[in-house]
Description:
single chain, Beta Polymerase, domain 2, Four Helix Bundle (Hemerythrin (Met), subunit A), 4 domains, 56% helix, globular
Amino acid sequence: MQRAARIGAAPVLSPRFSEITDEAALAAELEALVGEDGDGSDPAVRSAVLSILKRANGDGRRAAEAMLFEDGSGLLCAARISFLQDTLIRAVCRFALSRVFAAPNPSQGERIAVVAVGGYGRGTLAPGSDIDLLFLLPYRQTALGEQLAEYLLYLLWDLGLKVGHATRTVEECVRLAAGDFTIRTALLERRLVSGEASLLDELGRRFEAEVVAGTGREFIAAKLAERDARHQKAGDTRYLVEPNVKEGKGALRDLHTLFWIAKDHYRVDTREELVSAGVFSRSEGKLFEKAEDFLWAVRCHMHFLTGKAEERLSFDIQPEIASRLGYSDHPGLTEVERFMKHYFLIAKDVGDLTGIFCAALEEENAKDAPGLRSLIRSLRRRARQIPGTLAFLVDNNRITVADRQVFVQDPVNLLRIFQLASHHRLEYHPDALKLIRRSLRLVDAKLRADPEANSLFLDVLTDREDPEFHLRRMNEAGVLGRFIPEFGRIVAMMQFNMYHSYTVDEHLLRSIRELSGLEKGRFGGELPMTTGFISTIRDRAVLYVALLLHDIAKGRPEDHSTAGAQIARELCPRLGLDARETELVEWLVRDHLVMSMTAQQRDLTDRRTIRLFADRVQTLERLKLLTVLTVCDIRAVGPHVWNGWKGQLIRTLYGETELMLTGGYSESSRAHRAAEGRLRLADRLGAWPEAERERLLGLHYDNYVLTVPVDDQERHAAFIRAVDQKGLAFATEARTDGFHAMTEITVLAPDHPRLLSSIAGACAAAGANIADAQIFTTTDGRALDVVTVNREFRDDADELRRAERIARTIEQLMDGREAMPGLLARRRQAKPSASFTVSPRIDIDNDLSGQLTVLEVEGLDRPGLLADLTGAISDLNLDIRSAHISTFGEKVVDVFYVTDLLGLKIVGEGRAERIRRRLRAVFEEPGGEVSQPGTKPSTIAFGMTS
Length: 946
């Protein structure tokens, strides 16, 4: 099927679709409703007209969807929907003029043109797109024009279509477009649907002469500023894992912006004309069409699937869209991950085209005064030559090439340009980036083996000022993925889960940014410990290389940590690292998850936990390296993943391990540090009466003092004091954390084995999903439990009211005003997400702790899961000593330290298997019965929860 090359315009349609949407047949069917002398204004006739239009619209859309499955062309589908809309509007206008208003030959003053503008004017519509219409008049509104517009609009609305419309004269259009870039943009894409062509021609002449002429630069600046603001609002990255296909960075609107500027500045309508003008090469013109076609296909499938104008490619619909587009699983990548990688590669292509286009625009502006301006430009370039090189120049604080042969003459220059830019703190000229993209074939095995090229790359990676910026430019230009092919494999790769907010390559670059910021002391308040020792680390290059490589083996069938270590072993010598440094990088990549897993999923008060971790780390220097890598890795996962509690856990693990590695680990040293912690809290409570202060200081065990930040300790002390003064048996307190998008609920209650299950059930019944939980016991037999739930409302006041409702639900359950069966009935209506599958895994380990059995449970999260798990553990006659709740998007990894009722470890394979079956059933039978909390006495106190 032939496709037209007009930018954004309708390709040539197939005869088959034209037959389905035959305008003449539709017009004849409408005419038959009234006969030769009938009155089309009869309400019964209008009802029949609407019925016919509904059938025609439905038939046309079903045919467009079927053909989209057959040929896969998004541009063709968008053109078919637009063509169908044209057919309906023309048939209605013809019928209305001849049969409803009896004005088949309107007078000169009654002339009207129904004009498609905006996206509809381009001849492309998604199934749920708005239909933008302009009713164009010669002088002023007439009764006939008003009647026709009203008749057409109400029919379109009754069809369920969204219609944007305006009724204006030619004079009004010109005047408004001259003062409003949005109206000017819409009129750029004008197309006659029905009515007087002469009116549209008149508008075109006046629009070019009175609006466009002499204002091209202002229009370009406005469109680029509008694009930048849109990108900033959408997150300013094209690698969000739930991208907006219409408005996001690298999405359709970016291509539309290029089209608008091309029409306004170059006066072109086709890709071939852009190629002829030298803006794009022939291959880049084909890339433009490929990107537009793919994005339209995705958008049309989204609208058909959801039945609405859904523009966000959310997790819920990604698997179905991948299936509709014909993607299949591949070793290491699911069908949806392959689809999303293709999507992000297309988004990157759109970014490349934007850079090339902007370079051409800048070159055009430089040619406005070819004589004097070219001379001044040449003089300026010569005056700003970069010292030590003849290949590169500085143009307005941007590095550019001296001539177009610099990369052919010496391919090492493909790395040198980034090293010079980082060294001299320069941006990149669009001309240089365009030439780099067109020279990628020069990045071959010989260049990869070149010692100077590798040394230059390492200089960029370890830049003291802003390595992430220059690596990002290197990645966008395609050099990074070609120079390190293993990195190229994870460019634009998405992990289909709710935990990671970015593609793999974006995550790695953001982790580099975190390390750079840490080195420069930007996070002193958030990361006091790592900021304190980062300057003492002598292996800077090791850290930067390890961060760049730690996830480089994602998407492979084997474990990415093991495969990544193998890549590091082979790559590091090439980059110039010696044997010791290579071994360090290899170890860091292999064990890059160990510290975060230990901190979040193990009991840090258990000496064996610390000993096992210290055995993995071995030296203090390696401990520091792993700590920095872990912090940067977590902070680069996505917004709100890092929080103060995780920071405190890592500080605790670091402190305990440091003492063991340096020979200072002992109960006395631990007691000494706990005493110091109590002194810090005592200082915070200095205004309290001495007796009351001493009582509060004696309420907590050492693990609380060692693991909870002193700010939180001070807040908890005030909470406990207020509760005691009121003589309450139990109480709750709620607070919001807008910065981290989380909500925290603190519960003080008499301790009993099912307390955590009760709190979790109450949270689930209130519609709150627990993301984290901390459980402490006090010396007077109470439990201080702190649960963190995902935020629901953006406004703090709304979120605080929600948190207080959750807290009241917990209190009602505790004092018997609410029964667990009612809560559970409400909770069971919620089901796990259908978009994700996580196979349940239950591990039982007696070696991780000296006196406790460790249950590690992994599976698909759902509301109320923690209540079910803790209830099931109680049913199994196990006592929870500590619980460590970790949520990674849709997946939970919950770890419980337990004993039997006698305080002993769980032994015997038979009993272990019963535990596995019972906990597995919690995932496989989410609606199953869960025991209610009882009042069974227990001598076992709750421990610390992470």
